[in-house]
Amino acid sequence: MTDEKLKKIAEKIEASKKYRVISKETIRDVLATEFERHKNIKIAEEVARKKLHRIRAEYLGEPNYKKVKEALSAAFQAKDDKAIRGVCWSIFSKHSSTRERNQLLGEYYGKLFDFTGTPESISDLASALNPLSFRWMGLERSVKYHAYDVNEQFVDLINFYFSLEGLEPLGEQRDVYTSPPTEKVDVALLFKMYYCLEHRATGAGLEVVKNVPANKVLISFPTLNLVAKKTDILGNHEAELKRGAKLYNWELDYLTFQNEIVVCVSKS
Ligand SMILES: C[S@@+](CC[C@H](N)C(=O)[O-])C[C@H]1O[C@@H](n2cnc3c(N)ncnc32)[C@H](O)[C@@H]1O
Question: What residue's CA is closest to ligand 1, atom 19?
């Protein structure tokens, strides 16, 4: 009876305008976890909806998909690097996470890949629109760029762009917590996401870092919040990361930028 009730609630959430673009697996996992915790269907739905609101994170901004696809097609047809970069910039600037990185793009990936070595394969975990900044990464088009997100609209736009760019369309709708990627890669990116995973379930951030088959994992944390005030989100999670490093024999290094800090986990 309870299973039936949970299934019905999950179906209702999945069918809603807000959540129909989100992986069903994510919706069901969040709901089931909250029911397990609260043992009360009403409370479980209420808390699950709050958590899904943060996962969906519509408030961070999204582009007009139809318009930006047309703009991308036109820029690629013109084979004009400046125009292509302009359109990509306008797309990833629609999302706060990437917009906050705009001012860093000149040095960001150079500094990261100086540390990791130039990757031939990447997993961008919970990527949102970050793959649209490919032209600022200084990578060859032969790179295997896996981009994972629970939001199918992001994934669709990423694959549309990757195909125009001549990259393999390796965007995939996947919940990186409940279904960790299995592709072995040189570098995994977990940008501005660790604390969101921890909000979903305590320990989920470390689980994702542990489970991703990558030699290096780059975990970024904002050092300024959405209203440009100093914030120390890493401080809330550093002890846990250090505990993981000790347990799994990882090395931790730190790269600091103007408004972001990146923890570099070396597994090998
Ligand atoms: C705060 S944004 C991070 C954006 C990106 N990493 C960046 O820094 O530009 C959160 C993104 O993670 C996605 N997401 C949330 N939970 C996820 C999960 N468990 N697996 C995959 N994607 C997830 C959301 O759909 C959203 O696009």
Answer: 175
